[in-house]
Q: What sequence folds into this?
């Protein structure tokens, strides 16, 4: 033993404690804290000697309750006061930040001018998208996940890419009317083994997800999974994310933790008091899931749910919600570690909701697609019904002059219009069952890089908080106008879009 090197602040390689599954591997760990006055003894101290020394030092050190260390808390992005996406570098704390070999702007944040919420794509979560409320409480609707394929061990998912070697997010559109974010990631295990590898091409499972984020804090997303494997992947899990010193029950209400709502106004509230409920199956035709955070703004998920279940397993005495700390932030090679204290970043799960296939192909480039709406909103569960109707059962468009309707694009939460003339008039046939809620119009073949002159039901509209425009290049090089209105209607509404040859460019 005397010939061995002395390691201070770092022990021998070992497995993490408290694993959920066997897919937890040996790695190197170091002490994350302050060390001072190192003393080496030529014998082992007794427990009473250790206690005596500790008591002596703890009384003498006045700074022990306020050490010279950065507080460990989830990153905060200071908004610019404008709606839009930003490339940035979100700081956690110095020791952790220094682990990374990335540029000065690896992360993406979408902030709002009138809302205290944000969409966050941070390397500390593997760029898994987060929605954050005014109290710094984080939420995610998960990702694609599969298990144990192509020699992989355990969960194959973006959570396993601890170093964010391959996960990344980028801004595609960034205008006053909306922000579009592309998140791309492979499905791999903690040893970086790809799922469902095709022996001929070498490609495994990859996902391309597109987020269409609007000024009202609502996003729709297209989830595209490329896979040659069996289509048994997971697409959604309701996950709360915690920073150090945040306990699950400090973030999520337990008496009424979750509410499910259908389009007829039927709803059921579910309690986690004493532990998870047996199920969240009612009402039968639910389309809205509202999770009750301890803040003004709560996570909302909307879709054509095909069944649902509770994440009721893997419970410990720590919380009524199953909680793990192998992710986020942690670099340990493990796909599951139980949390016992609020000393690390961690996450809990509440439910899964099933989703129908939106589109798919089984050919040379096999894929499966699903869609979902989400946001961090300050509306009561029943107040979300019109929003759900407007997206799930959008009204039709009647072209009146100068344009043709290409239909409602549910992926983008937008009416797609083809411009034929410079002066366009159309009517949206809104009704009680097919309402308009903050609609977006995408005008293809727009004649110039300039905003439109607008009118709604004969009244001229100017750009501002309630009317927002952007002009972007389409993939064929033509201009595309994007217009978002803050507008609720249950009767037909007439819209006028006219090329504005004079004025400032409000686009990208």
A:
């Amino acid at each position: 033993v005397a010939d061995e090197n002395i390691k201070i602040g770092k022990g021998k390689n070992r497995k993490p404690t408290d694993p959920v599954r066997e897919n937890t591997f040996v790695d190197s760990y170091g002490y994350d804290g302050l060390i001072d006055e190192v003393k080496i003894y030529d014998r082992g101290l007794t427990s009473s000697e250790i206690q005596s020394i500790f008591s002596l030092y703890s009384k003498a050190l006045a700074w022990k309750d306020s050490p010279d260390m950065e507080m460990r808390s989830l990153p905060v992005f200071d908004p610019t006061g404008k709606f839009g996406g930003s490339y940035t570098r979100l700081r956690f704390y110095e020791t952790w930040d220094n682990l990374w070999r990335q540029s000065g702007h690896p992360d993406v944040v979408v902030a709002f001018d009138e809302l205290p919420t944000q969409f966050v794509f941070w390397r500390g979560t593997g760029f898994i998208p987060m929605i954050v409320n005014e109290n710094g409480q984080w939420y995610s609707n998960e990702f694609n996940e599969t298990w144990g394929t192509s020699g992989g061990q355990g969960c194959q998912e973006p959570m396993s890419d601890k170093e964010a070697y391959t996960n990344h997010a980028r801004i595609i559109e960034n205008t006053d009317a909306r922000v579009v974010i592309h998140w791309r990631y492979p499905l791999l295990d903690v040893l970086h083994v790809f799922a469902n590898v095709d022996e001929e091409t070498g490609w495994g499972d990859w996902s391309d997800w597109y987020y269409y984020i609007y000024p009202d804090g609502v996003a729709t997303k297209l989830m595209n999974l490329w896979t040659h494997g069996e289509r048994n992947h997971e697409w959604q899990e309701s996950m709360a994310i915690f920073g150090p010193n945040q306990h699950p029950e400090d973030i999520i209400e337990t008496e009424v933790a979750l509410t499910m709502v259908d389009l007829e106004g039927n709803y059921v509230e579910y309690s986690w008091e004493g532990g998870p409920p047996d199920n969240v199956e009612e009402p039968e035709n639910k389309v809205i899931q509202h999770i009750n955070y301890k803040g003004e703004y709560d996570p909302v998920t909307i879709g054509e749910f095909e069944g649902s279940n509770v994440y009721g397993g893997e419970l410990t005495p720590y919380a009524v919600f199953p909680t793990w700390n192998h992710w986020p932030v942690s670099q340990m090679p493990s796909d599951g570690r139980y949390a016992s204290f609020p000393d690390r970043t961690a996450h809990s799960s509440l439910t899964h909701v099933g989703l129908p296939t939106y589109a798919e192909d089984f050919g040379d480039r096999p894929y499966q697609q699903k869609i979902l709406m989400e946001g961090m909103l300050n509306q009561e569960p029943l107040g979300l019904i019109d929003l759900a109707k407007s997206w799930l059962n959008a009204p039709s468009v009647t072209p009146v002059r100068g344009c043709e309707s290409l239909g409602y694009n549910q992926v983008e939460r937008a009416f797609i219009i083809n411009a034929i003339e410079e002066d366009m008039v159309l009517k949206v046939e809104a009704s009680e069952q097919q309402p308009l809620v903050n609609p977006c119009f995408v005008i293809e073949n727009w004649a110039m890089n300039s905003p439109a002159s607008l009118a709604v039901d004969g009244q001229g509209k100017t750009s501002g908080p309630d009317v927002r425009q952007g002009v972007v290049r389409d993939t064929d090089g033509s201009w595309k106008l994007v217009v978002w209105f803050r507008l609720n209607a249950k009767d037909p509404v007439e819209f006028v879009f006219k090329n504005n040859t004079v004025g400032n460019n409000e686009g990208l």
Q: What stands out?
A: The first helix runs from residue 47 to 60.
